[in-house]
């Protein structure tokens, strides 16, 4: 679909230049019969198209067209002329790439004669007149393209868009970066083949100035490869003798551990059924489709970049117990003297962090959940005792660096058949959407992404008041199984959040608790590919962006 605003009469020459540049990049994306080696290059053009569209949104070009008001454009008149020249040079560079080339090769000459763009076609394009996609796709063949010119054009395109972004204010640049990251994340979400994800990983490596989304593409590609080839598994099962339990950290049976004689590790547990079971996955299925997949997802040393711990491997604790032991490593840069603390334990401290720290913590937890959902994983047990901090001796807690752990119930979102009912743990019901344990005619429904988002909403309430939810509700008569109903019946609970941290934060909490009703789209199923895409976009806009925009005076 073309972005709004490519019929640009209301925006003058800058708008026409922008629309022409977008159409020009679209022509490259429609090149036919490209060799496999160059599919990644075409994908890089798509990423740059996303950057250019994000720039158009960031400076207000599309909004100006919608309102018929050129004053909505946020760059100065002088910079508009510079931008117009940059866009014109971009379009010219693409035309130099696509126009028919003289060649002595008969085969290429014949293909050029059959498919070259006539003068009328070019004039239509240069005037910014909208062209039908089918007509475009029949005009350009790879046989008319030179590979070295293709890479040169891509470099020119990237440099030009860098120049356009540099014309904007620092705040607008942050907005553009957010929109660009959303484009990239959407590509990670919708691509599911190993080949496509591999191409995306390499394309993002070239295009992304940062790191996180590149790693997400890599994580998802590795996961899909293991799912497609079950015989290919990481050497993730560890020797029992290599893991030594030290001290119990908390009531959730999280233990400090020593691995191969070294400190700086901890273990968490995943129970499995014994004997034959007619309900839920077997031990073997859990090991193959959950444990090994999870270890593969978290095995990367750079997993800390998305605020999840690195998982070294697992041990089958049988016959001592019927469970798997997952071994995690302290984050890079953390000393072995650091104390592992949970958010739940910190919430019970009398010393409450300042508002800026609490907002930063809320942002970080929401961002990590967004990343997990982008690569196709459901956490299923998001609660304050599964959010970890590593406090160095004689240092304060860094609330901007929480780590989401507690993956004992997690699974890939595509594997409903691997779904298990969460074990009975004290206080867990406070964080669970009621549909996770409510019986319907056909039994319990599979866990959904919005159930994780609901749990996030509960954690945000706790962060706002700096108390566990059970203490916030103490004396109210609200039972843990009726938290959902109480929050929707009595808005005072959310109004108290607004009084504590502000209206914008309150709106974010309300969005999370409403789930699909707030983050979905009419006529779209949440479990569909389109539903996942809409949910990701709306979560970014209504949760992450709003949290980022909260200003706290220091």
Explain this structure to me?
The protein is of the alpha+beta class. The protein has 2 domains: 12-63 and 80-97 and 120-230, no CATH class; 234-549, Transferase(Phosphotransferase) domain 1 (Transferase(Phosphotransferase), domain 1), CATH 1.10.510.10. Helices cover 50% and strands 9% of the residues. The chain has 21 helices and 10 strands. It has helices spanning 12-29, 39-58, 61-67, 77-98, 106-115, 119-126, 133-137, 147-166, 170-190, 194-207, 212-228, 283-298, 343-347, 355-374, 449-465, 469-472, 483-489, 492-501, 503-514, 516-519, 529-548; strands spanning 243-248, 255-259, 262-271, 310-316, 323-329, 339-342, 377-378, 387-391, 403-404, 411-412. The strands form 3 sheets. The protein has a 5-stranded antiparallel sheet with strand order 1-2-3-5-4, with helices on one face. A 3-stranded antiparallel sheet has the order 6-8-9. The chain has a two-stranded antiparallel ribbon with strand order 7-10. A hairpin with a 2-residue loop joins β2 (255-259) and β3 (262-271). α2 runs parallel beside α8 and α9 (170-190) packs antiparallel against α21. The chain is globular, with a radius of gyration of 26 Å. The two termini are 44 Å apart. Mean pLDDT is 78; it is low at 1-10 and 101-137.
């Amino acid at each position: 679909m073309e972005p709004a605003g490519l019929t640009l009469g209301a925006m003058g020459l800058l708008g026409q230049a922008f629309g022409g540049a977008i159409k020009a990049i679209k022509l490259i994306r429609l090149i036919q019969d490209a060799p496999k080696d160059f599919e990644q290059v075409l994908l890089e053009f798509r990423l740059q198209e996303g950057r250019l569209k994000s720039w158009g949104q960031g400076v207000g070009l599309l909004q100006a067209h919608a309102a018929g008001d050129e004053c909505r454009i946020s760059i100065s008149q002088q910079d508009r002329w510079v931008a117009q020249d940059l866009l014109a040079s971009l379009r010219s560079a693409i035309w130099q790439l696509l126009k028919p080339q003289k060649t002595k090769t008969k085969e290429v000459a014949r293909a050029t004669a059959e498919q070259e763009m006539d003068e009328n076609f070019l004039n239509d394009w240069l005037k910014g007149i909208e062209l039908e996609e089918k007509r475009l796709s029949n005009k350009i063949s790879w046989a008319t393209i030179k590979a070295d010119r293709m890479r040169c054009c891509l470099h020119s395109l990237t440099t030009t868009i860098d120049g356009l972004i540099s014309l904007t204010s620092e705040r607008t640049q942050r907005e553009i970066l957010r929109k660009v990251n959303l484009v990239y994340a959407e590509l990670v979400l919708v691509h599911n083949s190993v080949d496509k994800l591999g191409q995306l990983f390499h394309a993002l490596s070239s295009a992304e100035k940062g790191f996180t989304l590149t790693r997400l593409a890599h994580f998802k590609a590795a996961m899909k490869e293991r799912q497609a080839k079950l015989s290919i598994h990481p050497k993730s099962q560890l020797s029992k003798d290599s893991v030594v339990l030290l001290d119990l950290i908390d009531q959730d049976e999280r233990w400090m551990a020593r691995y191969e004689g070294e400190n700086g590790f901890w273990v968490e547990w995943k129970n499995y059924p014994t004997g034959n079971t007619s309900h839920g996955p077997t031990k073997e299925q859990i090991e193959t489709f959950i444990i090994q997949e999870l270890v593969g997802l978290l095995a990367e040393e750079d997993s800390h970049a998305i605020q999840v711990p690195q998982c070294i491997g697992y041990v089958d604790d049988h016959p001592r117990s019927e469970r798997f032991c997952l071994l995690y490593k302290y984050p890079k840069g953390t000393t072995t003297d650091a104390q592992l603390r949970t958010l739940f334990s910190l919430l019970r401290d009398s010393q409450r962090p300042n508002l800026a720290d609490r907002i930063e913590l809320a942002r970080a937890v929401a961002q990590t959940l967004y990343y997990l959902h982008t690569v196709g994983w459901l956490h299923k047990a998001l609660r304050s005792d599964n959010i970890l901090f590593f406090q160095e001796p004689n240092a304060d807690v860094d609330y901007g660096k929480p780590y989401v752990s507690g993956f004992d119930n997690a699974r890939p979102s595509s594997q409903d058949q691997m779904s298990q009912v969460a074990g009975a743990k004290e206080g867990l019901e406070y964080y669970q959407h009621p549909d996770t344990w409510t019986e319907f005619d056909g039994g319990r429904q599979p866990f959904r992404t919005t159930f994780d988002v609901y749990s996030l909403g509960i954690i945000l309430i706790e962060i706002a008041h700096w108390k566990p939810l059970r203490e916030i509700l103490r004396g109210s008569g609200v039972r843990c199984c009726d938290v959902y109903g109480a929050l929707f019946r009595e808005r005072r609970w959310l109004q108290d959040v607004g009084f504590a941290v502000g209206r914008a934060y309150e709106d974010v909490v309300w969005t999370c608790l409403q789930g699909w009703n707030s983050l979905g789209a009419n006529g779209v199923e949440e479990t569909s590919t389109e539903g996942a895409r809409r949910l990701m976009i709306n979560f970014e806009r209504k949760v992450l962006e709003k949290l980022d925009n909260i200003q706290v005076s220091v």
